[in-house]
């Protein structure tokens, strides 16, 4: 089988796309979603079959190879996937020249439910250039769909997440015929969803829409949309409580006020944070020219976070954003000082204690960062506010010591390239 059936224990009561096997048959309404207990991150994509080779973790969002969004795996290289419970993934070949059934630049697609997929199949092995990771629908206005062309007729506001005709999510409209997409968002529309897709998981014709107004969804989708997948920013920050005032969105990476990367919302000005499903953000005070000890730092998970009454309200100077780890050699950490002892290599992303591999938790003493690399090391990896302990910022080059506070004490690393 393409999917490891040992992970398909029952949970919940939602519809589900069955495992992608020739004998699976059509999805059955009312079938429970599979449980994937070992899938810590919403999606991990792998460059080799059987969950092997280079890998990249993803949170909710739309990730395009053309903009480098597929990270360590890269475009036209994904061969297997691991999807966490509660998430679904739409994987597409966006290269029209390579797909005879391409529609407006988006070719063959497959829709994956939770599970371990040893091969992506469906003719998409080493051809995926767009990944859309969606959780349950969220309140918001990232996308507005309309029942008539030219943004007219009935309308429906959609936040990040998945909207399926089979689940009644689009019932307020007779059809979807036009849409507008807010800044920082993207939407993928398809003419089949998980109840009408074949056993191959083919969602039919799909098209991706970026920010702006779209007076038509195209001839192939006009009046036929059954699936809307909405992706928004990994993190949104505002200068006032309740998401008022200046607004700035952030993708994966380390964003510093000292490098003018918080210019829109402002240094020492953030009062609210919204973190997308499956993403994490480390927010720190007292950003300085690296290497430097940072001020108070807090690790936030998915959801809305009001900072009023905390030490970080109007005090944030650095945001480190990631969904999880990736392979690569942006940072090499060593167990002994002077770049000696056992070592481990890390790509861009977030690495908790269990991700520190051969170098180990509470064992790092020195490190080197590749050109253009930045990293934040912290004492603890707990997700509760105020429990990451001491943190320090490093930039490209050799660092013979990580400092007294973090020597043999590091449990959390954010790496950016």
TrEMBL record:
Keywords assigned by UniProt, alphabetized: Signal
Signal peptide: 1-24
Record's protein name: FG-GAP repeat protein
Protein's organism: Catellatospora aurea
Lineage: Bacteria, Bacillati, Actinomycetota, Actinomycetes, Micromonosporales
């Amino acid at each position: 089988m393409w999917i490891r059936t040992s992970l398909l224990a029952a949970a919940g009561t939602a519809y589900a796309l069955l495992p992608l096997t020739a004998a699976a048959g059509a999805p059955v309404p009312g079938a429970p979603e599979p449980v994937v207990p070992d899938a810590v991150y919403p999606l991990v994509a792998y460059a080799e079959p059987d969950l092997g080779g280079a890998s990249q973790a993803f949170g909710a969002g739309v990730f395009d190879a053309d903009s480098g969004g597929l990270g360590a795996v890269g475009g036209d290289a994904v061969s297997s996937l691991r999807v966490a419970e509660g998430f679904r993934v739409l994987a597409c070949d966006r290269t029209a020249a390579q797909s005879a059934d391409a529609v407006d630049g988006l070719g063959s697609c497959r829709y994956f439910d939770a599970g371990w997929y040893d091969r992506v199949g469906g003719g998409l092995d080493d051809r995926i250039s767009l990944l859309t990771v969606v959780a349950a629908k969220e309140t918001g206005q990232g996308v507005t769909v309309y029942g008539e062309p030219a943004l007219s007729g009935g309308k429906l506001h959609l936040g990040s997440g998945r909207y399926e005709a089979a689940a009644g999510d689009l019932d307020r409209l007779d059809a979807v015929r036009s849409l507008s997409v807010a800044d920082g968002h993207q939407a993928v529309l398809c003419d089949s969803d998980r109840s009408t897709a074949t056993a191959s998981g083919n969602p039919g014709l799909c098209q991706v829409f970026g920010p702006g107004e779209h007076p038509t969804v195209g001839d192939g989708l006009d009046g036929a949309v059954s699936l809307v997948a909405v992706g928004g920013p990994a993190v949104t920050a505002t200068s006032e409580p309740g998401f008022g005032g200046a607004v700035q969105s952030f993708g994966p990476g380390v964003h510093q006020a000292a490098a003018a990367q918080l210019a829109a919302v402002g240094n020492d000005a953030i009062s609210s944070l919204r973190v997308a499903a499956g993403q994490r953000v480390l927010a720190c005070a007292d950003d300085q020219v690296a290497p430097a000890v940072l001020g108070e730092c807090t690790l936030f998970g998915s959801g809305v976070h009001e900072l009023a009454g905390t030490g970080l309200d109007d005090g944030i100077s650095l945001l480190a954003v990631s969904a999880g780890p990736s392979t690569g050699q942006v940072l090499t950490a060593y167990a002994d000082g002077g770049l000696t002892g056992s070592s481990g290599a890390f790509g861009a992303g977030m690495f908790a204690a269990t991700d520190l591999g051969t170098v180990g938790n509470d064992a790092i003493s020195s490190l080197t960062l590749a050109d253009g690399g930045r990293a934040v090391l912290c004492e603890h990896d707990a997700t509760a506010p105020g429990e990451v302990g001491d943190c320090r910022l490093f930039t490209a080059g050799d660092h013979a010591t990580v400092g007294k506070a973090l020597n043999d004490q590091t449990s959390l690393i954010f790496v950016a390239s």
